[in-house]
Amino acid sequence: MKNLLILGAGTAGTMMANHLRSKLYLNKWKITIVDQYKTHYYQPGFLFLPFDTYTENQVKKTGKKFIPIGVDYIQKKIEKILPEENKVKLEDETLDYDILIIATGSKIAPEETEGLLGPLWKKDIFDFYTYEGSLALRNKFREWEGGKLVVHLTEMPIKCPVAPLEFAFLADSFFRKKGMRDKVEITYVTPLSGAFTKPTCSTALTYLLEEKGIKMESDFAISHVDNDKKEIVDYADKAIPFDLLVTIPTNMGDEVIERSGLGDDLNFVPTHKHTLQSEAHENIFVIGDATNVPASKAGSVAHFQAETLTDNILLYMKGYTLKEEFDGHANCFIETGNNKALLIDFNYVTEPVHGTFPFAKVGPLKLLKESVFNHWGKLAFRWIYWNMLLKGIAIPFVSRNMSFKGKIFDIKKSPKTN
Amino acid sequence: MELNIAGVNLDVTEDGYLNDLSQWNKEVATEIAKEEGIELTDKHWEVIAWLQDQVKKEKPLSVRGIKKSGVVDIKQFYALFPEGPLKKSTRIAGVPKPKSCI
């Protein structure tokens, strides 16, 4: 009997348990999944909680429900991975593995920014990347009377890179509906060169910021938070004042990766970007936010990765060469407020394009264009997540690699300018 | 789009970043730096070499990364490439501008 061990029962780990449970002979392989937490959160819902669009119960369920029968689910803290011995130390026992899948995700590290965890944390400074942060922000919004709302992104990479922008759009809608938009000044602050950094997107989407009256501060690399003056300050001593700061702190991989000496500076595990095998150990595979691959950290990416990784684990078990298949495919809805959304589809090399999705010409979803349909798609996705995605059921007509059907590559090179 | 520097046509993005690092050389860097209002010193070249190395290793570029580079600290980085140091230094180094997914 051999052991396949999965660390982390979040989106990626749970999907892998479901995929492999149906592919492996249980008399040959024992599948075990470890996660210290009881609750599985629908993380995309954290974007909606602050605006009272979703309730607490819509974004959390008991994790065990999604782990298939036949897979051993251990709810304990992971102390250390010992890759040289093929063992993983838990709080009170040690597990052996023949194949290890690391799916320990990423999380916010507010302690990385000076002053962020100061006296204003959870009073006037909030995150919405945790359940607790998102709920605390909801309570704040319910009673907030307006002022300077600063939506701030610390540094890349972050989980769901579009979420901060979506947050700014939804905040605009939210305060309009409340009839107090004139009392709220919204500023979007990014360390990048703008809100839209890819040419296709800046051409198609820059109007959104103007339309919504959102102010923009780019190239802002935060040095510290001044709790007394209520300002964020960058390394060039530029200060941006706030009454309410919603920040996306630095994102890092789990501490267990650091304790095990398996990560880079940000505790992400160096991983082959097409096979998902770890760079350092051939029997360790990595999926989802835990990897350092240059794809977006998002559930849709983990979903596409899971299909490739399942095939590669089966190939590895038989001693075959792995498929260099994963192309960085991501497919994300972007809420733009007023019950509309955009949809983007891209991979490692292709920027988001125009067109229809998933069917050429028919759609019904439109790429890179605001529509009500896309917004329904985003809301429907919560059902798909709990009922299909986690269970490893393929989403009909959406393939693991990016498809080029029905897509318009309309960003032409400009004429020669000398 | 193309940009003509020192008699050579360079393939660049709409915002003036090289599409192909193999077209980069010190002369190109010096000219782009001039456009950005920067005169390159030894320290600039060290930062440029570090940035190119990071990109070849497919590591994401961030101001935080600079802190850990051992080449310069963040204050120096801002002094070398004022106003948007990451944006300017990457353009001069001939590597892609740090991007989000949109």
Number of strands of chain B: 2
Helix count from the secondary structure assignment of chain A = 8
The gyration radius over C-alpha positions of chain B equals 13 Å
Taking the sheet with the most strands of chain A, its summary is: 5 strands, parallel
Number of helices of chain B: 5
**Shape verdict of chain A:** globular
Report low-confidence residues of chain A grouped into runs of 5 or more: 411-418
Q: What is the arithmetic mean of pLDDT of chain B?
A: 90
Strand order of the largest sheet of chain A: 5-2-1-9-20
Provide a descriptive summary of the structure in words.
Chain A is an alpha/beta fold. Chain A folds into three domains: 2-107 and 252-317, FAD/NAD(P)-binding domain; 110-251, FAD/NAD(P)-binding domain; 330-408, no CATH class. Chain A has eight helices and 25 strands. Chain A has helices at 11-23, 131-143, 163-177, 199-205, 207-211, 255-259, 299-317, 372-389; strands spanning 2-7, 29-34, 39-41, 60-62, 72-74, 78-82, 87-90, 94-96, 99-102, 106-108, 125-126, 147-153, 184-189, 215-217, 222-226, 231-234, 239-241, 244-248, 251-253, 284-286, 330-337, 340-346, 354-359, 363-367, 407-408. The longest helix of chain A is centred in the last third of the chain and has 19 residues, at 299-317. Mean pLDDT of chain A is 93; it is low at 411-418. In chain B, 35% of the residues are buried. Chain B contains five helices and two strands, in the order ββααααα. In chain B, β1 (2-5) and β2 (8-11) form a beta hairpin. Chain B has a two-stranded antiparallel sheet with strand order 1-2. Chain B has one domain. With 102 residues, chain B is mostly helical. The two termini of chain B are 20 Å apart. Chain B is globular, with a radius of gyration of 13 Å. Chain A binds chain B through residues 112, 155-157, 161-162, 165, 190-193, 196-199, 201, 205, 218-219, 221, 223, 235-236, 250, 264-265, 273, 292, 294, 296, 330, 332, 334, 344, 346, 352, 413-414, 416-418, and chain B through 1-4, 9, 13-15, 58-60, 62-65, 68, 74-75, 77-78, 82-87, 97-102.
